[in-house]
Structure formats: C-alpha cells, structure tokens
Amino acid sequence: MTASGAAAAIAPEPEPGSGPVATADDVITFADLKTWERQLASTGTCKHPVKLHGRVTAIDLATGETAPVYDTAAEPGGVLHVACGNRRESRCPACSQAYKRDARQLVRAGLTGGKGVPESVSTHPCVFATFTAPSFGPVHARRMRGKTVLPCRPRRDADKRACEHGRDISCPVRHGEHDPRLGRPMCPDCFDYEAAVLFNFHAGELWRRFTTYLPRHLARLAGVTGKQLRKELRIRYVKVAEYQARGVIHFHAVIRLDAHTKEGFTPPPARYSAALLCDAITLAAKAVRITVPASGPKIRLSFGRELDARSIWRESFAATGRALDAAAVANYIAKYVTKAVDVPGLPDTRIRHAAEIEVLRCPAHHKRMVTMAWDLGARTSVADPRLRLWAHQLGFGGHPLTKSRRYSVTFGYIRGERVTARRLERHPDGERDPWGRPLDERVVLVLTSWSYAGTGYTPRTPDAELALASADMARAR
Ligand SMILES: [Zn+2]
Ligand SMILES: [Zn+2]
Ligand SMILES: [Zn+2]
Fold first, then answer.
1. Which ligand sits nearest to residue 150's alpha carbon?
2. Strand order of the sheet with strand 401-403?
3. What three-state secondary structure class fits 149?
4. What is the pLDDT of residues 8-45, one digit of tens each?
5. Is the pLDDT of residue 473 over 50?
6. How far apart are the CA of 190 and the centre of ligand 3, in A?
7. Rounded distance, CA 164 to CA 180, Å?
8. How many Å lie between the centroid of ligand 2 and the Cα of residue 202?
9. Would residue 410 be called left, alpha or beta, if left means φ above 0 and alpha means ψ between -120 and 50 degrees?
10. Helix (H, G, I), strand (E, B) or coil at 48
C-alpha cells in the first residue's frame, strides 16, 4: 500500500473552531445571514465580547423596496455584543464552556449516534487508545496498582540511587493526586529537555505517521490487500492532546471502523473486529519512528511503550472486566479541549522576546522547556521558527482536538443546530421577511453592514477576526 493511499483512508479536516468566513460581498444569502446570527448568538457571560455597530436590511427583488431587519441602534448602548468564541478556559470561561459542551456532543455523536449520525454507529468496532510519550528522564509520578498508590521510584541499593550528576534519583513517596512534585524531573540534568520539546513539536507528525500505518496493519491482520481494505473500510477518529504533568503531550483517541459506503456510518465487514483494531493500533503505534534535526546529531522520536488500546463496547468487557462507556469517554475528551498547558505562570499567548521568559513565574521545569523551544528555534541545525511561535506551549503547536471528516459532525453543525433551535423558539410559526411573507431568498435579498465599535476583546481569535474583517468591509464601502 502506498503512503498516500493509506493516508486517504483517514481524511483529516480543517481545524475546528476556525469559524465561518465572512465574504466581502455586500449582498449575502440567507445562509450567510444564519452564519452571522451564529456569530451574534448570545454572548452569555463572555469575558471579552466584541462590540459591533450595524444593521441588516432586506430588499424586495421585485419592487426594489427596502425594509430594516435589524439595527444595533435598538440594542442597549447601541452596540451588539458578540461572544469572543475563545476556547481557552484561561481566556474566556463562558466561551470555553460552550466549546467544551460542543466537543462533548461531537464525540458522543460518533460513539452512540445523534446529530444526524445513526444510533447503529454504536455497533461498529470502536477503540479508545492512549498514545504516551517515551521517558525523557526520571520524573516524580503517581503510580497505581488498582486503587493502591505505589512508591514513586523506590531504589533499595544505595549505589543505584545516585545519577551521574550525583543527585539522588530515588523517591519512596506515594504521591497524592495534587502533589506539586508530580512530573518534575528528579535530576534536571538527567532530563532530556531537547528531546522532550522536539517530541511535542513533532507529535502531530508522529500521529500522522500512525494514521498512515494503521490501515496497513489492519489489512495485514485481516489477511486482505491494502486495495481491498480501502474498498471496504474507512477509519474514523477524534483525538485530543493532553499535557502530562511533565509537560509532554500525549494523545487520547477514539478510533472507529466504518464500511466504505457513500451513505457513511455503515458497519464494516465482520472480519474487522474491535480486537483486530486494538492489535493493529498497538502495532502501528509501535512502528512509528521519525528522525528529526536537533542541536547536535539528529534524534529519533517514537511513542512511549505505555500504549493503551481498549474496545469501547461490551465485547471487551468479558476479556478485561472493564468496559468504557460513551458518556465517560466523551467527557474525558472534552475535558482537554479547552485547556492549553495547565501550568500556572505560563503565558497563554506567544512569547516575543527572550526577556519575557526570564520573568515567567512558572515552575523551573516548564521554564526550561520554554527556553529550550525558544533556543532550538534559532539553531541553524533545526531552523524552524515555529519552535519560537509555540514556545509558550512547550513546543506543541497542534490543535487540541482533531478528527477525521466523517467521525461524526462538525463544530459548525453543532453550533448551527443551536442557532436553529433558538430561531425556532423565537419564530415558532416559521420566519417571515419584513413584509410578513414566509422567508424566501428568491424574493428578497439581505444586505448587512457592520463596523467594529469596541475594545476589550482578545485579538486574533477567529470571531474577533471576523468582526475586524467586517469592519474592513464596512470601511471599504
Ligand atoms: Zn468569550
Ligand atoms: Zn516522587
Ligand atoms: Zn542527573
């Protein structure tokens, strides 16, 4: 199977949350108007709402007569507040809550149906898998056996306790869940900061390779050719990136098998079982290796050995005694979509000068990772400016949530559904144009004019950019 052929089985989709795109046309369709309404939907308790001036006017195509549909002059203060739409909890609690709720619905729909996805999707082989990073040096960890917390890193031999730097790298403590030492290296000099940062930086590529290898392993285990597999099967996934306490990314993914049909959401042939999928995931993840430029010799990156792949449905229950349930999985994934690095003292925006790193009030461990990313970004052997761009994210620049196109529905669909529900609430007998006729875009055109009217928003969020684009449009006119 060729790499491109295999990759085609999992079609990635544009990052969610990138928002609808405003057109530069004066005349918009009703569909665009709905898009706007989506933007203009309740700001809730948004922390940084964008203020807009503007109006919506309808034109009767037959008579040329105009009539106002909406004018911000009627709003309190004469402005409309648009929610910032930022998904970061640290930036806007209200908007991030809405985003989290949408993510939960999106994940759940792909597991148990709903939102236009048939319920039969819950009969498909479906696996919840965790892809960890390898060890970059001993760190304090909360180790569990069942419900018992084990000692962190016991070393009985006195001569094996010290590392080459003469530091004691043993720890007999049974760490509590919120112990601030968790994830901190026992010896900072033993911790390979460069490899850790480069792992974060290339984590997306490791995942991409995995999605390329997975169909090959599935085909081999099922005893079919790659061509036959592509004809019969589609692999859908949704994955979320989580920062471990040590500041290294790992992925949680729901991976589902569908038949390759036009309608989509059809169970695959019986030979592709959940057990087969678990095995293929394990093999594919273990096979992923990439060699990347570093400050010295190139280094090889791979996923960690602790890979967990478990069927979500009952068939695994007999074997493992543990079945996951859809709601728990959806909650688990949604938990991470609104979090960036969950470390106090780390900035949530890009670092622009080295001096900003010096004054960071985050733990020394994370500061060292930020510094490493910043320095690597300037190394000629690495020479990737994105390392600096993503230094505040410890080198990781990917989106917290990514999914294949047909996993379930898009964020846009879920937001749209919310808007439609609100419209129905407001107009139970169907919407009417200003002349009292049922709304029909062949009869009337809708013109909008918006201008940006307020500060206090966070720049560069998709929605704020949309508002700015609209202001540009208004100025251009
Ligand atoms: Zn907001
Ligand atoms: Zn410890
Ligand atoms: Zn050491």
1. 2
2. 308-311, 126-131, 249-259, 233-243, 401-403
3. strand
4. 333 333 333 333 332 222 344 455 555 455 554 544 56
5. no
6. 4
7. 25
8. 28
9. beta
10. coil
